[in-house]
Amino acid sequence: MSSRDLDAAGITDPELRSSYELCRQLNAAHGKTYYLATLLLPQGKRPYVHALYGFARYADEIVDDLASTLTEQQKADWLMTWGQTFLDDLDKGQSTDAVCRAVIDTVQRWEIPKSHFEAFLHSMQMDLTVTHYQTFDDLYEYVYGSAAVIGLQMVPILEPTSPEAAEKAKDLGVAFQLANFVRDVREDLDRGRVYLPLDELAKFGVTRADLQARVATPEIKNALRYQISRVKDLEERSRLGIEMLHPSSQDCIEAARVLYCGIVDEVEKIDYEVFTKRASVPITRRLRVAGPAWVRARRARSRYGPGRVRGLHQNSG
């Protein structure tokens, strides 16, 4: 499958193909729902999406790996060095890093702004020092770099028909991230972090100490309900943006929207018991979404073509 995708994308250089394949493996191993959605894209677009995911996941693994033997300072030093090397390589247009080689190729082909990656790396640095956020505005600084820019990186590959698509992509990326925060309260506490704004928790009589007690009290459930309403509002705002993408890309993002934002539906189904249960979208629902979406995606490609599959620059490295 991956070789055909790389062929369709016009990626012929062996080292570059190896880098893209590594990114695909990172996607498949760590983002199963997202990976499933990428299979709805035209073959020639998939490697670029895998490269962007691989970059984000590679950095995030260093920050979030609970089993790591690195100290927080060592993680910060590694991330700063790796991130600056990537930005320098981005300016040079080439990299020897196994993951970054494909990412830089993707950036060049699709003319993705460097600022998106600077914002992402800034948020990864924040994750090593910031353990809570007082307000949603404070949180948004982190979420912009960790989630909104991921949507913005993707937009050129998905070929928007309107500049408004970028704003909608930001909304959807933030919705995905906030849905994860609601689901992962327990895991985040294990890492010493709280991603629910403290002032919003206080409105429902909830403190950080209450969360650390790990009992889903009525007050905590009400606070989670409030957070879920924001996810659903952002999700609804983002839907119009999907219609602003090339028809061959729409079903991928629609499936991702339904499945990722569906996390909060599963939290509701377990009655907000996030400390004792992990909400997840059942495989049966994934298949119910993916099956019809695959049929629609094939029809869209047949009717409208795959769009540009080699980006703006045709050099394959």
Summarize the entry for a quick read.
The protein has 317 residues and is mainly alpha-helical. It has helices at 2-9, 14-30, 32-38, 46-64, 72-92, 100-110, 114-126, 136-158, 164-183, 185-190, 198-203, 208-213, 218-242, 247-269, 283-304.
Task: Walk me through the structure.
Helix content is 72%, strand content 0%. The protein is built from 15 helices and no strands. The longest helix has 25 residues, at 218-242. It has helices at 2-9, 14-30, 32-38, 46-64, 72-92, 100-110, 114-126, 136-158, 164-183, 185-190, 198-203, 208-213, 218-242, 247-269, 283-304. The protein folds into 2 domains: 1-129, Farnesyl Diphosphate Synthase (Orthogonal Bundle), CATH 1.10.600; 159-305, Farnesyl Diphosphate Synthase (Orthogonal Bundle). Helix 3 (32-38) runs antiparallel to helix 14 (247-269), helix 4 (46-64) runs parallel beside helix 7 and helix 13 runs antiparallel to helix 14 (247-269). It is globular and about 55 Å long. By secondary structure, the chain is an all-alpha fold. The protein starts with a helix and ends in a 13-residue tail after the last helix. The model has no long low-confidence stretch (mean pLDDT 91).
